Amino acid sequence: MDTVKVLQVVGFKNSGKTTVILNLLRLANDKGKKVSTVKHHGHGGALDMPSAATDSMRFFEEGTNSSVVYGGGVVQVLQRKEEAMLDELIGLASMEDPDLILVEGFKRDDYEKIVLLRSAEDWIELQELNHIVLVITPKQMKLDNLPVVLHNDLKQLNSWFTNWMDGDSNEGV
């Protein structure tokens, strides 16, 4: 496997992370890139599971550590893991040899990241994150040595992302 580029999109709840990821995913697909995604489920509680009537869920409920199902061109993996580290999840997302992996959340991890702000107050805590390569804000802000894009400026965001995708980054795995 060649080096895969990883870009995190981080911010507090309701800052627009999923919307940005979807936009970047569409742009990468339009450019012919193969993309995987990883998301931190930060809403508390367990994920929604497939119907209990499926064989894979019956296996899972009986205690298997991992249940893998294939059908119709889709692989579904259910896995028990008390604690999952981002690097492990990136490893899973890398199995199909993507050109890049977009990560939603995991803000304390060590990959290049876009930080989304809902207000200037968010910057007080989020400026401490490492590997920030872009900040998206609701209003124009001047930040030392960091590019800033306004939430509604898709043209500028898309231009930045295209340059990032095509550039030579050392933030791969």
From TrEMBL:
GO terms for molecular function: GTP binding. Coiled coil: none annotated. Residues 6-136 form the Molybdopterin-guanine dinucleotide biosynthesis protein B (MobB) domain. One of its GO terms (biological process) is Mo-molybdopterin cofactor biosynthetic process. InterPro entries: MGD_biosynthesis_adapter (IPR052539), MobB_dom (IPR004435), P-loop_NTPase (IPR027417). PANTHER family: MOLYBDOPTERIN-GUANINE DINUCLEOTIDE BIOSYNTHESIS ADAPTER PROTEIN (PTHR40072:SF1), MOLYBDOPTERIN-GUANINE DINUCLEOTIDE BIOSYNTHESIS ADAPTER PROTEIN-RELATED (PTHR40072). This is Molybdopterin-guanine dinucleotide biosynthesis protein B.
